[in-house]
Inverse folding.
């Protein structure tokens, strides 16, 4: 029982995020299920091998960084609006604001800041998703990278 290992950046973290790990036992890579008393077996090997074969370091790095951007944006919004519980909820708030006739729009400073935080985060995520270089994506700083409003 073993798997074929690919030494790709982030693969070990990806497997752990999915509930598995691989250990090198004298050149033979053994797969373990983390939440099942380190269970081994052909079903674990097959699942882990499927994860390894389908792993894309760029996609994984994008997903991690996009979540970090959302987390940072949410922290910034919650400083003003603690009831907001998710970054993705901000899109609804922005759409609601834009649905108001332009002549009737008069956002408070705090509300406008919330919208600006969402736009900065959404723009950073969009840019991140267009980046083709893994090293650029994985080194992106979600605190200083986006153009967060002051």
């Amino acid at each position: 029982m073993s798997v074929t290992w690919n030494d790709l950046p982030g693969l070990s973290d990806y497997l752990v995020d999915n509930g598995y790990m691989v250990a090198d036992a004298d050149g033979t890579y053994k797969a373990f299920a983390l939440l099942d008393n380190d269970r081994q077996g052909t079903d674990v090997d097959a699942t882990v091998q499927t994860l390894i074969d389908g792993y894309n370091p760029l996609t994984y790095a994008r997903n991690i960084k996009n979540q970090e951007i959302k987390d940072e944006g949410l922290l910034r919004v919650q400083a003003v609006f603690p009831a907001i519980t998710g970054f993705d909820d901000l899109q609804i708030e922005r759409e609601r604001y834009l649905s108001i006739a332009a002549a009737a729009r008069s956002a408070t400073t705090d509300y406008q800041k919330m919208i600006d935080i969402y736009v900065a985060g959404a723009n950073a995520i969009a840019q991140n998703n267009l980046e083709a270089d893994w090293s650029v994506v994985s080194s992106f700083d979600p605190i200083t990278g986006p153009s967060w409003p002051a």
About this structure: The chain has a mean pLDDT of 89. The longest helix spans residues 57-78.
